[in-house]
Write a structure and sequence with these properties.
By secondary structure, the chain is α+β, with helices and mostly antiparallel strands. The chain is 45% helix and 28% strand. Strand 3 and strand 4 form a beta hairpin. The chain has helices spanning 10-61, 124-129; strands at residues 71-74, 79-93, 96-105, 113-120.
Length: 130
């Protein structure tokens, strides 16, 4: 009569180690992908926030009335990773234009972020009557 073995055979141990190492490698790969996705989401949120802030600033300060270039960077805020450009687009509606602000990333892996805002443009006759 044969006695039952009380342990793993060498083959069973090798198969177990291979399965565990495959699971660990897959987990590490998934965490790496998740980390990259989270990094991209943070940068996109930062770009959207900067675009909204810049559009508010341009409208509030009247910078849209100047004939200078509508572009720059965020060095005054300590943010050197992004630059911005803006364009005024006609809506076809009297006294109403669209401000299109685009944020560009210094790193090529990030897409541009665009924010469009409507703003009121007082007509010359309204200003003359005041």
């Amino acid at each position: 009569m044969r006695r039952a073995s009380k342990g793993f055979t060498l083959i069973e141990a090798i198969v177990s180690v291979a399965l565990v190492s495959t699971a660990v490698a897959a987990s590490v790969g998934a965490l790496g992908g998740l980390s990259k996705t989270e990094w991209l989401a943070r940068h996109r949120e930062t770009m959207e926030r900067l675009a909204v802030q810049k559009s508010d600033e341009l409208i509030a300060t009247g910078a849209l009335e100047s004939s200078g270039a509508l572009s720059g960077d965020f060095s005054e805020q300590g943010e050197t990773r992004f630059t911005w450009s803006a364009e005024i687009l006609a809506t076809g509606i009297e006294n109403l234009d669209t401000l299109d602000v685009t944020i560009h990333a210094a790193q090529s892996g990030l897409a541009e972020v665009r924010v469009q805002r409507l703003f009121f443009v007082p007509s010359q006759t309204l200003e003359a009557g005041l």
